[in-house]
Structure formats: C-alpha cells, structure tokens
Amino acid sequence: MPVLYLFDIDGTLLSAHRSGRDAFDQVFAEHHGVPNASEGISYGGKTDPGIVEEIFVARLGRKPRIEETTAFLDAYLPRLRTLLDAKGVQVLAGVVETLEYLQPRCTMGVATGNVKAGAHAKLAAAKLDRWFDFGGFGCDSHLRAELVARAIARARERYEVDEVVVVGDTV
C-alpha cells in the first residue's frame, strides 16, 4: 500500500527564526510606510497570500488588489532569502532522522502556506530540499485543505498513492 507523507514546513520541519515575518514587515514598511505591520497577526495555519490580505485589512482597512499581492510577494522573496542567510535556519529535532527513515518506504512532499519559492528557499536554507520535489503551496490556494489536495494530485501524477498522512503543527 503506497503511502504519501505531506509535511508542513514552519514549526514542523524547521524554524526560520521569524525570517518570514520580518521580511513581510520590511516589505510593508517600505511599500506602505507602516512599520511592524504584522504585529498581532498570527501566521499559524495561514497562507502567505492570506497573510498579505490580513495585513492589508488590519493596517490599510482594505483588501489588496491582485497586482498588489503579486508585487508584495515579489518583493518579499529576496528579503526572505537575505534574512534566512543572516539568521540561519534550525532543523527541528528528529526531522533528519525521520526523513531518512521514511525516504525508502514512502513518497514525501510538502503541504505549506508558503508560496512555492518561499518554501524552496526555506527548505534549501535548512538543507532539507533534497527530500521534497513536489507539494501544495500558498500560491495554489488560500485554503489549507486545497493545498493538501493539490499536493496529493501532484503526487498522483508521478507516484502510486493509496494512503496519505499529513504531518504539521497546525490544524
């Protein structure tokens, strides 16, 4: 019975030491003049585009236009990479051993609220990218359940999948 394991990234595989949050704050301050814009906003279980929307509503009183979200995320990614390099990334305890154990026994992917390029940046910074070549990402949908569905669909394009196990720190 072929099994697919889908992993969340932040808080499950690694800690990026607030690099994503800090990058969001830097971009919002630069583009909209509001410092610490994500203060009081919970990131857990949300997608990057959903967080952008929540910050816009909280700080500007409106939802962003599609082109504003795109521009924001385009500016966010280089900031994220810079902060990941500066702050480092901590692989959480037991993660490498778990992935090494699972690799020959199943298929593994990610299901994360990070946009695809952000997910790859974090996994590469943690040197975990070698285990994951597909997934469901925050750029696929605002809804977490749809991210999982996208990851499963992508897995089924390449692998036989009978059972799915989702591993994460938020529901």
Shape: globular
The biggest sheet amounts to:
4 strands, parallel
Rounded to the nearest angstrom, the distance between the terminal CA atoms is 26 Å
What strand line-up does the widest sheet have? 5-4-1-6
Whole-number tally of structural domains: 2
Beta-strand fraction estimate = 5-15%
Identify the CATH homologous superfamily of the largest domain.
HAD superfamily/HAD-like
Helix content: 40-55%
Query: Structural class, please?
Result: alpha/beta
The mean pLDDT is 96
- Would you count the extended β strands for me? 6
- Write the CATH fold name of the largest domain: Rossmann fold
Order of helices and strands: EEHHHEHEHEHE
Ranges where pLDDT stays below 50 over 5 or more residues in a row are none
Condensed summary:
The protein is of the alpha/beta class and 171 residues long. Helices cover 48% and strands 12% of the residues.
What can you tell me about this protein's structure?
The protein is α/β, with parallel strands linked by helices and 171 residues long. Strands 5-4-1-6 form a four-stranded parallel beta sheet. Strands 2-3 form a two-stranded antiparallel sheet. The longest helix has 22 residues. It is globular.
Detail the topology: elements first, then pairings.
Blueprint: E1 3-7, E2 14-15, H1 19-32, H2 48-60, H3 66-87, E3 90-91, H4 95-102, E4 107-111, H5 116-125, E5 135-136, H6 144-158, E6 163-167
Parallel strand pairs: 1-4, 1-6, 4-5
Antiparallel strand pairs: 2-3
Key structural traits:
171 residues, alpha/beta, 2 domains, two-stranded antiparallel ribbon, globular
